[in-house]
Amino acid sequence: MSENTHDKLPIRMLHDRVLVRTDTPEGERRSGGGILIPATAAVGRRLAWAEVVAVGQNVRTVEIGDRVLFDPEDRAEVEVRGVAYVLMRERDLHAVAADRFQGATDSTGLYL
């Protein structure tokens, strides 16, 4: 787990740090019904999904490739080779959605 290579990233995470790539860029988005919601629309505190691309050696609950839920307001952004990533501690993750867990056929696939 300590050796992290997502598209040969020239970076190795330390301690309990997790590097993720967000699913959607910030800005306009669409509702489930297809309505365009502008970036300036006021919404409540909204969590975001991202894919884990690197983990530190002390990370225990997530693996590279997992989809995680996090608060976009509590983040540190970093750019590596022109791609924006979010850096956070493992404890700042709220949930993990992964098919690798046994018995996920009758559940949502999330664990908290």
TrEMBL record:
**Where does the signal peptide begin and end?**
none
**Organism of provenance:** Streptomyces roseicoloratus
User: Its function?
Assistant: Together with the chaperonin GroEL, plays an essential role in assisting protein folding. The GroEL-GroES system forms a nano-cage that allows encapsulation of the non-native substrate proteins and provides a physical environment optimized to promote and accelerate protein folding. GroES binds to the apical surface of the GroEL ring, thereby capping the opening of the GroEL channel.
Which family, according to UniProt? Belongs to the GroES chaperonin family.
Protein keywords: Chaperone
Its subunit composition reads: Heptamer of 7 subunits arranged in a ring.
The record's annotation in SMART domains points to: Cpn10
Protein name as catalogued: 10 kDa chaperonin
What is an example of a Pfam family matching this protein?
Answer: Cpn10
InterPro entries, sorted: Chaperonin_GroES (IPR020818), Chaperonin_GroES_sf (IPR037124), GroES-like_sf (IPR011032)
